[in-house]
């Protein structure tokens, strides 16, 4: 790889040196920053501004010139609800179903996943043989691509799959798991935990190992019970890490899309459709392409994410060097 | 070593004592975890080597088995072999020519001239262990797999290199220069953390379209090339490189660019390696943005192709599972060799 990069680097050096020598540029910091800032500007900041314009305009044109100003009607359309608890009473019931699904999914997935991650991290933090092996076993699915994760479990859960075979072998009925709305939702939660818990286990384990040994030794001197040690030492000292993990899991949970889209396609019906899939379906998959609605929904999602990110920065503030 | 159980179960630290009941519980939990995490992948591996007929079998078997066949004089195709367990031909091994209702027309491979009629209930297929490698070879012959593989490799490699160069340049500027507006730039970089791709999909698509990036591999590569995570990871590392080295190089009239790529980059190798591994994983597994920006199936990445395959009713499980295995394999290999770095990298950046 260096053989390719070296000539390239030499090539870049010519104009850079010229600017430094001829133009007398003493501090080329901005030159080094330029490519990154252009990319950030074009693909992060500019889109945020344009997103607002899209959300305030209608029609299915992609060019802003073809989009008439419609005021807040996209937001009105999304928020027009008889009761926010009942998606059927909303004008855009698909959106509210997605919102409800996402909220329920995030509560279940984040709660269970952080719980299991904590349990696994606590166990891995004990005096365990082959700790490295066990740690990587739990971490392994994190690296799998979402589509691969979805297909692995689809293959197991399908009508004639190995899970049904096993159920029949022990005398139970086989079941078409992914055609039942509740079960499809449940398996989506499971699949998502299966795929991501290794990541959080890793962070929590690092947090546990950062707790100083002598605190535990002092507790042992005082003959504190294991439960008391956990309640009074481990848990409080792990709290900062727990907070980071919780917020991180929330941020990612709200944006769940890839693996569930490949797993159930959002179905059956709209049982596993989450907010990102609503945006994708409305703006890109269906006709007409309702970019305005998709943008309006994105902005509502962004508000949630900005709040969560501030929480993350706050929880993480000790690690960030300003 | 008089007591092997005691030897195997003793823990570090207290060599003499056995395992406490909580230790047993811990190992039980971990053992269940190993099963839950690994078995699905292993099951996928076994299944991907089964023939389509074997895959449709319910209940399924663990090992890939296929029916044995034999070439018989006078027939062009190899015929499936059966063992006859009843009736007048009991005990013989016969090849089946065709089946009509409940009667199978069969032939003895040693005496191919005479056709025998056997009730289908009296025959049992002869099967042996065989890996259906055609599941894999067909992917290249029939399914354009090479093209998708090339697209994925090209995107992953190019995007990783561009990202490393662009991000390390910015990190260099932010860690080694004092200039007006540095705090502002740092704040901007933190700001981009708050703008995940998922909330700007529509305008991102529009901008990419205006730059003629849609439906091209560059449309996947360019928009994600600058990442706040990358800039931060590299900057934190470069801060630890002493400024005296730079001053010494400046004395020797090295240009700033030379200082960057001859001194700073080599010294930041550990951080760059971590970022490279992360970037490769992100790009290889990337799904939502490619799904939006690529529409012609010739430009599909492996992930998109795999997803399109599974939605296609004509696709057979045998090919689909083989393709899943091939998409999984590079990551599994990388993991096996680099898992320590991946783990530290992910732990230090907090994911993406």
Automatic annotation (TrEMBL), chain A:
Regions crossing the membrane: 29-54, 103-124, 136-156, 184-208, 229-254, 260-280, 292-315
Domain of life, per lineage: Bacteria
Entries under Pfam families matching the protein: BPD_transp_1
Annotated Gene3D superfamilies: MetI-like
GO cellular component: plasma membrane
A GO BP annotation: transmembrane transport
Membrane topology: Multi-pass membrane protein
InterPro entries in the cross-refs: ABC_transporter_permease, MetI-like, MetI-like_sf
Span of domain ABC transmembrane type-1: 99-312
PANTHER family: ABC TRANSPORTER PERMEASE PROTEIN, INNER MEMBRANE ABC TRANSPORTER PERMEASE PROTEIN YCJO
Assigned protein family: Belongs to the binding-protein-dependent transport system permease family.
Protein name per its UniProtKB record: Sugar ABC transporter permease
Organism: Ahrensia marina
Automatic annotation (TrEMBL), chain B:
UniProt-annotated location(s): Cell inner membrane; Cell membrane
Any one GO biological process: transmembrane transport
Organism superkingdom: Bacteria
SUPFAM superfamilies the record matches: MetI-like
Main localization, broad class: membrane
PANTHER family given in the database record: ABC TRANSPORTER PERMEASE PROTEIN MG189-RELATED-RELATED (PTHR43744), SN-GLYCEROL-3-PHOSPHATE TRANSPORT SYSTEM PERMEASE PROTEIN UGPE (PTHR43744:SF8)
Subunit comment: The complex is composed of two ATP-binding proteins (UgpC), two transmembrane proteins (UgpA and UgpE) and a solute-binding protein (UgpB).
Family statement drawn from the similarity comment of this UniProt entry: Belongs to the binding-protein-dependent transport system permease family.
Designated name of the protein: sn-glycerol-3-phosphate transport system permease protein UgpE
Organism listed in the record: Ahrensia marina
């Amino acid at each position: 790889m260096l053989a390719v990069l070296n000539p390239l680097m030499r090539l870049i050096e010519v104009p850079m040196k010229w600017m430094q020598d001829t133009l007398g540029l003493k501090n080329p910091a901005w030159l080094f920053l330029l490519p990154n800032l252009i990319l950030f500007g074009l693909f992060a900041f500019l889109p945020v501004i344009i997103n607002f314009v899209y959300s305030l305009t209608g029609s299915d044109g992609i060019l802003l010139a073809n989009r008439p100003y419609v005021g807040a009607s996209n937001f009105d359309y999304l928020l027009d609800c008889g009761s926010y608890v009942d998606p059927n009473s909303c004008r855009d019931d698909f959106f509210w179903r997605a919102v409800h699904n996402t909220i329920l999914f995030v509560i279940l997935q984040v709660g269970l996943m952080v719980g299991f991650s904590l349990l696994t991290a606590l166990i891995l933090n004990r005096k365990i043989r082959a700790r490295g092996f066990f740690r990587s076993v739990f971490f392994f699915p994190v690296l799998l691509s979402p589509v691969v994760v979805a297909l692995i479990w689809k293959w197991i859960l399908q009508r004639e799959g190995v899970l049904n075979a096993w159920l029949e072998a022990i005398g139970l009925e086989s079941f078409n798991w992914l055609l039942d709305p509740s079960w499809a939702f449940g398996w989506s939660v499971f699949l998502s935990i299966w795929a991501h818990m290794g990541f959080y286990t890793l962070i929590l384990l690092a947090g546990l190992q950062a707790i100083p040994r002598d605190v535990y030794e002092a507790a042992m001197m005082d003959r504190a019970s294991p439960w008391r040690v956990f309640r009074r030492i481990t848990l409080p000292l792990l709290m900062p890490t727990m907070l980071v993990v919780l917020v991180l899991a929330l941020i990612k949970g709200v944006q769940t899309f890839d693996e569930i889209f490949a797993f159930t396609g959002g179905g059956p019906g709209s049982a596993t459709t989450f907010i990102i899939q609503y945006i994708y379906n409305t703006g890109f998959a269906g006709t007409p392409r309702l970019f305005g609605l998709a943008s309006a929904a994105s902005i509502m999602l962004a508000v949630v994410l900005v709040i969560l990110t501030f929480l993350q920065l706050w929880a993480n503030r000790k690690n960030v060097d300003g | 070593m008089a007591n092997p159980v005691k030897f195997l179960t003793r823990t570090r630290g207290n060599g003499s004592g056995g395992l406490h009941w909580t230790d047993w519980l811990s190992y039980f939990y971990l053992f269940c975890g190993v099963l839950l995490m690994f078995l699905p992948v292993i099951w996928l591996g076994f299944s991907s080597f089964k023939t389509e007929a074997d895959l449709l079998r319910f209940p399924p078997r663990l090992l890939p088995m296929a029916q044995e066949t034999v070439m018989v004089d006078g027939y062009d195709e190899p015929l499936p072999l059966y063992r006859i367990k009843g009736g007048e031909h009991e005990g013989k091994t016969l090849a089946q020519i065709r089946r009509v209702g409940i009667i199978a027309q069969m032939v003895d491979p040693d005496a191919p001239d005479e056709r025998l009629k056997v009730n289908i209930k009296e025959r049992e297929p002869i099967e042996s262990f065989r890996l259906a490698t055609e599941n894999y070879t067909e992917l290249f012959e029939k399914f354009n797999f090479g093209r998708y593989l090339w697209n994925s490799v090209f995107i992953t490699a190019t995007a990783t290199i561009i990202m490393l160069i662009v991000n390390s340049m910015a990190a260099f500027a932010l860690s080694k220069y004092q200039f007006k507006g540095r705090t502002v730039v740092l704040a901007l970089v933190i700001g981009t953390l708050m703008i995940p791709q998922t909330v700007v999909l529509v305008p991102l698509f529009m901008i990419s379209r205006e730059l003629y990036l849609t439906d091209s591999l560059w449309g996947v590569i360019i928009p994600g090339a600058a990442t706040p995570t990358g800039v931060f990871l590299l900057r934190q590392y470069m801060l630890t490189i002493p400024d005296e080295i730079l001053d010494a190089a400046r004395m020797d009239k090295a240009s700033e660019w030379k200082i960057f790529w001859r001194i700073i980059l080599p010294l930041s190798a550990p951080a760059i390696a971590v970022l490279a591994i992360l970037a490769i994983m992100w790009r290889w597994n990337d799904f939502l943005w490619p799904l939006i920006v690529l529409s012609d199936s010739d430009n599909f990445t492996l992930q998109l192709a795999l997803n399109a395959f599974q939605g296609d009713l004509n696709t057979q499980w045998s090919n689909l599972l083989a393709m899943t295995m091939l998409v999984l394999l590079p990551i599994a290999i990388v993991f096996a060799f680099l898992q320590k770095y991946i783990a530290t990298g992910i732990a230090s950046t907090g994911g993406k």
